[in-house]
Amino acid sequence: MDVRAYLTERGELVNRYLDENLPGLAEEPVSLHGAMRHLIFPGGKRLRPVLTYAAAEAMGVAPDVVTPFAAAVELIHTYSLVHDDLPCMDDDDERRGRPTVHKVYGEAVAVLAGDALQAEAFSILFGDSGLLSAAGGTAPPEAILAVARDLALAAGSRNLVGGQVDDLSFELIGENDEARIESVHARKSAALIAVSITGGARLGGASEVLLEGFARFGKAVGVAFQIADDLLDADEQEPCSTLRVIGVEAARNRAEALLESALTELEGLGEPAEPLRELARFAVRRDQ
After folding, report:
1. What are the start-end ranges of the E strands in the chain?
2. Where are the domains of the chain?
3. Among 27, 32, 116, 153, whose Cα sits 20 to 30 Å from the Cα of 265?
4. 114 close to 75: Cβ distance less than 8 angstroms
5. pLDDT value for 211
6. Confidence band for 122, pLDDT divided at 50, 70 and 90
7. Do 49 and 124 form a contact (C-beta atoms < 8 A)?
8. Could you tell me which residues come within 8 angstroms of residue 133 by beta carbon, excluding any fewer than 6 positions away?
9. Which CATH number, 3.40.50.720, 1.10.260.40, 1.10.600.10, 3.40.190.10, labels domain 3-284?
10. Partners of 94 in the beta sheet?
11. Between 173 and 144, where is the model more confident?
12. How confident is the model at residue 243 (pLDDT cuts 50, 70, 90)?
C-alpha cells in the first residue's frame, strides 16, 4: 500500500467537504471567516480524518458515510492548533509553512476563529449535509449521537484541553516523570486520534468489543505519534518531552513498543484493516 497516496486521496475527500460546508471568504464577518480558513486551507497531512476513513474501511463502509465526522475531527484539531499557537500558549509565528492565524488576523480574531471552528465541528455533524443525510442517511441515529458525544469528550477538559493545561504547566510539575508526560500525550494528542478511529468504526457498525480494541489501538498509536513528534523536534527539547527523561534511543524503542501493542488489536480484522495498520506505521516511524 502507498500510504502517502492514500493520505492524499482520502484527504481530498475531506478537503472538498470542508470547502463546501465552511463559510466562504466573502461572507461577513470576512476577517473571522478568513481566519477560520487560514489554517484549514492548505491543510496538513489530514492524518486524523484519514484514520476515520481507514477505520470505516476496516468495517467495510464507504468513505461518504463518515465524511462529516472526518471533517468535524479536522475542525477540532485545527481549532486546537490555532489556540496552541497563540502568544499566551506556545507563541508560534509559523504553522504549515505560513504565518500563524494570530500573526495575520490578530490575537482576538484568532481566539474567536478557534472558538468558531470548534462550534462548526458539531454544526457540520448535524447539519443538512451531516451524518443524518450522508450516504442516504445509512448511519444509525444512535451511532451518530455516540460519535458526537465521544468527540466532545475527546476535545474537553478531561482530554485535549486538560492535556494542554498540564503541558503548559509542566515545568512546574518537573521534568523527570515519564508517566506524567505520557498522561499529557494521552490526553492532548492520543484522545483525538483515538476518537477519529473509534468514530469511523462506530459509524461502520462495529460492536462494543471491537470498539474497545479500536480505542486501545488509537490511544497507543496516539502516544507513539507524539513521541515521534518529540523525536523529530529533538533539538528543541521541550519540557513535556519523553526524550528529556529517557533519551532518544529509549524513546524510539518506547514508540515502537506502543506501535506493536496497537497492531495486535487489529489482528482479527484481516485485509480490510491494512490501511489502518499502514497509517499507524507511517505516523510512528516518521523520523526513520
Report:
1. 94-95, 98-99
2. 3-284
3. 153
4. no
5. 98
6. very high
7. no
8. none
9. 1.10.600.10
10. 99
11. 144
12. confident
